[in-house]
Amino acid sequence: MGKFISDSFLKEMITVVLFGFVVLKLELFTFGQVVNGIFLVGIIYVLAKLFRGFKNQKAVLFDFGGVVAEGDYFTEPMRIRKGIPQLVNSLKKKNYKIALLTNQNAEVADFLSKRYGLNRLFSEQIVSGKVGIKKPDKAIYSYALNRLKVRPKDTFFIDDSEENVLGARKLGIKGIRFQSVEQVAKSVF
């Protein structure tokens, strides 16, 4: 199903709506306002479940250099770290929102995004050079949370810089200092 709605929730929503329509039909014959009230409660229940589904959405924010990519910008070719695409795809299958959060300037970020196909990995790319805020400023983490529409407690931030991880933790984000893909997988799952 869709990115935010699980199959079980969809089935439950359809059941409640169908029940509401059946009850509404019965109202025409017997029960009057009581049944109409039950239908309204059913609709409110569906909307509340839908709202809660968005509210409890989980997200993972990844840094680029040192986490997603390995190598050095200046001394050796960079490459996507082995295991990162598989980890990202596993998180997507569990309905996590996946975003890149990097301190790069806009031009470098655009070049790297095209070169490494980052649009295929990440649904969002939050670039300091485009938003005018750098990690570890808490404003960039707040910006990311608002853009992804997630709560801090439902968000992981992966970075190789302890300073950046601590900045995220100050907002209640689950900050993880990157050591390996396996370490991140164990922490997130």
What does this structure look like?
The protein has helices at 7-29, 33-55, 84-93, 106-116, 118-121, 128-131, 138-148, 162-169, 181-188, and strands spanning 59-62, 69-70, 79-80, 97-102, 124-127, 155-159, 174-177. The protein has 189 residues and is an alpha/beta fold. The protein has 2 domains: 7-55; 59-188, Rossmann fold (3-Layer(aba) Sandwich), CATH 3.40.50. It has a 5-stranded parallel β-sheet with strand order 5-4-1-6-7, sandwiched between helices. Strands 2-3 form a two-stranded antiparallel ribbon. Helix 1 (7-29) runs antiparallel to helix 2 (33-55). The radius of gyration is 22 Å and the shape is globular.
Described by the principal axes of the CA atoms, the overall outline is globular
> How many angstroms does the end-to-end distance come to?
21 Å
**Count of runs of 4 or more consecutive helical residues:** 9
Looking at the chains present, what oligomeric state does this protein adopt? single chain
Content-based structural category: alpha/beta
**By CATH's scheme, which homologous superfamily of the largest domain applies?**
HAD superfamily/HAD-like
Q: Kindly state the mean pLDDT as a whole number?
A: 84
- Helix percentage range: 40-55%
The CATH C-level class name of the largest domain: Alpha Beta
Q: Can you tell me the residue ranges where pLDDT is under 50 for at least 5 consecutive residues?
A: none
